[in-house]
C-alpha cells in the first residue's frame, strides 16, 4: 500500500527553467502530505512535455506556452518486493515507454505474468507495480478489467495521463481539474498541498449534514474536489489550445442477470470464491494478521487464513472499550459483546491473540486525528477508535485481513430483513433527517436544499440500479436495497478502513470486496441469501467447514462502541468549549439547542446513521465539523 499524488498541467511555461524547481517543490509538499500512507520509501517524477498534437513552435500557442509538466509523487509502504518496488517506475516495451505511480495490491499477478510470458519482457522486480505497467504497455487499457485487487494508479504515456481506480473503489483517488491543471491524490490533503485552496459550499454542507458520514460517489465534499468513480478510468490530455481535457470511461460495472444455479451449486461457488479470494489476499513478503471480532465474517476470514498459513502461527486482534464489561447496554442493533465469541474462536483456530482496548481519552484524542486522516467529518468515535486500534496493530504487523463488506454483499444488516426499512423511499440507515439538524441554526438549515439534495441522491442511485426484465416488485426492492448498500454504506466503511489503517501505515485487505464475489452474489435471489430464514445463509454454509456452531449462528452485532456515560459528559463539555472558542462554529450551531441537547438523555438504540451513531456520536460529529472548519480555515 502507498500514497500517490501528482499533476498534469499546462499552467506554467516549460521554457522557463525556474518552473521545474517551482513544481518540484510542489511535488515534495504533496509527497509529504501523504507520507503517512507509506513511511518506508518515497520519490518524485517530474517531466516536461510538448503539446500532444505534435506542435513544437511556441509561436503557435498563446502566451508562448509550448507544453506542460507531468509530476508524480509516491510514498511507499513496503509489502511485496521490499527492495525492488521503488516508485515512480518507468518501463519500455518496443520503444513504447510509460511511467506509473501506484497504490494497492494486485492479487492475480501469477495470471497476469502468464499473459505476458509470450512477450519479450525481462522483469527487474517481483512486485505487482511492474506487472501492471508491462500489462498496460502490451495490452493497453483493456487490461484494467483483468486486474483483481485493490488499486488506484496513474500512468503517464506519450503526453497523456491515465487515471485508474479499482472495480469496487477500495482504494481512494481524488482529483481537481480546471482548464490548465489536473491534480490528483490518494487523499484531498495532497491536492491542497499542491496549492488548491480548500473550500466548502452549499453542496458540501448537504453532503456533511444530509448524507454524512457517507458521501455521494464521485463527490469529494470540498468544492471542486472530485473522486474517480469505482470501475472507471480517466484520460487526461491537452487540446490544440493547450487546455487540459479529461474524459471519463467505465471499464467495469455491476450487471443484473438471471441466476441459473440451484442452492447447492450457489453455495459451492460462493465457498470457492470466498476461499480463493482470501488465499489470494494472503500474498505478502512480510507477516500478515487478521482482525477478529468473533462474528461470522471476521471469524471465517481468520479461520481460512490460519488454515492456509504454513506455520499455523496467525496473529489476531480484537477491539473493545475500557469498562464495557460494566457499561454495555444491549439494544436492537448491538445485542451482545464480542469478547466471549472471540474467546471461542481463538481457542478454535489456536491463534496468537491480543485484546486491545480504547479508553475515553484515546477515543476523544483520535476524533481530530480521524479528520486529519479523512479530511472531512466521518463516523465520529466509530472511526476514531478504529484509527486508534489500527495504530496499535501497525506497531506489530503491517498487513491485516478484515471481514468488511460481507454484510453489504450477503445481506446481514437489519434493513435487508425489515420490510418497514427496505421499503422506504430513502436510505434505510439514515431515514430521518430531524436528528441530523437538531443542533444547527434554523436560518442556516433553511438556507440549504437539504431534503431535496438527499432525495435527489437517493433517486439518482436507484435509477442507476441494474435490473432484469420481469422482476417482481419484491425482487426489485431486494435488488435495490442491495445496490444501495454496495454504492453507499459499504463505501463509507471502506473509506473508514482505508484512512484509519493507512494513517498509521497499516495495509488492510478486504477479501469479501473481491469483484468476482460481488458480481456473483449480486444476482443470487434473496431466498438463497436468507435460506430457511437464516441470515447470511450462504456464508453460514461456507463456514460450516471452518467454524463452530456458536460462531456460525451468532446474531449479528456491529463494531463495538463505548457505553461509558463519562464519555458523553466529556463530549458535552468539549463541545461547549469548542463553541465558545471557535467563531466559525458559532455561525452554524445554535447554542441554546446545544445546551438542551447535552442536558437531555440520549437514546442509544435509535441511531441517526447506521447502527451505532446515536446521541453521543452527534456531539462527536459536531466536534469534527468544528475541527475541519479550523483546520482548513473554512
TrEMBL record:
This chain's protein is named asparagine synthase (glutamine-hydrolyzing)
Residues in the signal sequence = none
Catalyses which reaction?
A: L-aspartate + L-glutamine + ATP + H2O = L-asparagine + L-glutamate + AMP + diphosphate + H(+)
What does the record give under GO molecular function? asparagine synthase (glutamine-hydrolyzing) activity; ATP binding
Main EC class the enzyme belongs to: ligase
PROSITE patterns, A to Z? GATASE_TYPE_2
The segment(s) forming the Glutamine amidotransferase type-2 domain are 2-239
Could you say which protein family the record assigns here?
Answer: Belongs to the asparagine synthetase family.
In its keyword annotation, does this UniProt entry include Repressor?
A: no
Q: Which Pfam families match?
A: Asn_synthase, GATase_7
Q: Which residues form the active site?
A: 2
Any one GO CC term of this protein is: cytosol
For this protein's source organism, the top of the classification is: Bacteria, Bacillati, Bacillota, Clostridia, Eubacteriales
Which residue numbers mark the site Important for beta-aspartyl-AMP intermediate formation?
404
> Protease as a keyword?
no
Q: What is its EC number?
A: 6.3.5.4
Q: Which residues bind L-glutamine?
A: 128
